[in-house]
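Appendix B. Raw example, untouched.
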Amino acid sequence: MKILPRNLTQPLTAALARWFAKRAPKSDSATLNLRNVYIFFSREGMLFALLLVITFIAGINYGNNLVLGLCFYLVSVWLISFHVTFAHISGLQVRLLEVTLAEAGEPIWVTLQLRSESRQPRRQLAFSFEQRVDKNLSQQTNNRQDDSKLSGDDNRPVLLPRLQEQQIIRLSVPTNHRGQFELPRLQIKTVYPLGIMRAWSYVYFERTAWVYPKPLTFDWQAQYLAASTEDLPTGGQYTQGQDDFERLDNYIEGESLARVSWAHVARGQGMFTKHFADPVGHEQTLDYADMPAAHHEQKLAQLAYGVRTLGQLGVPFQMQLPNEAQSAAAIGQGDPFAQACLLRLAKTL
């Protein structure tokens, strides 16, 4: 069988994609109906259609009524399958519930709600996102082939053997680059009940996802970053500084007179030296300008590493991005705050 050149099939594929998109406007909820459900012979159905042609020609050529009767019987089976397969997918309601924040190179997880108002259960429905061709992504996928087998993240369609009333499913979408990510079209298909006809539909979601940079390890202010939870200060650890008053000690000759507690001297209690301390590790600042990398994307990746590290350790911190006022950088801690910072990194221009 001769395959058409790629430069000839691409315009046809693009034209069909635009035609499908016009018939299904972008929305986070959709109902499958006559306008956006398509039906044609399946791969096995093409062989069935060939059988219809052969039996019809044989019956006409030899004048055999039994062969013609078989042909008409097969045609009736095909018509019934056509109707049942189309009705089986038509009327299904799909709603987008959640789209997760993802790291570049890792999949985005999309949560969908399916509703069926039909009294009869729907069977053998397959859901999958269209895969985009990306050479870099394909190379990364090949490098992670063994890991994907263990985690189950192989981007295969989700097959529902039975759907009654309502069900929640999750689908993964591979990512590659940081920034705003437009979800590919969702394909819903079925060949139920006989596998002769294939009915399918496309859903185009309006909501977009965000992808933050892949964390890049770096040695930033290593003297302040705790390597593990055991190294974290527990509230009573301080280092010599100028912020918080710590204690009074007897004056030692040669110490700065600026630290002498003159109130005690005035009361005749002797000379004492005031000592101050700063809390260790109670607050960190991740500043874009302090990142050692030379390129913009690498700096953002290093910030992502700092955010992930401090978020996991529970250390209070703030993140300062370019073109942001110093007062706009809020201070927080924990995983929710880290996720908010990662979202800021994903949205940074």
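End of appendix B.
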